[in-house]
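Example record

The entry below shows one chain as it appears in the dataset: sequence first, then structure tokens.
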Amino acid sequence: MEPLRKALLSSFSSLTLALAVSGFAVAQDSTPTSGMDKMGAMHSDMKGMHDNMMGMHKMPATVTAANASTGVVDVTTEGMALKVHFPPSAAASLKAGDKITLHMGFSKP
């Protein structure tokens, strides 16, 4: 019975170690490295949330500034100055003076 117990204990220890290492690797792979990466992660988490959206509307806007590396875009619309965020790849071609349409809404957790 002693050899069987040692084999089971060894297998259990190996399995525990493998799970711990794989959990660490997944955690390291999915952790954003900066604030803008976190925003990008938030955008990807929003897929499929349109069913819960409230206040959906669109607004014509004029770009006053755009940061292609962060995706942060300053606009004026209906007499208001707004700062909005997009994935950097989506905002890469925006420049001051561009006329765009913002599609906006919100949801509650």
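Notes for this example: The domain at 42-106 is CATH 2.30.30 (SH3 type barrels.). The chain has two domains: 2-31, 42-106.
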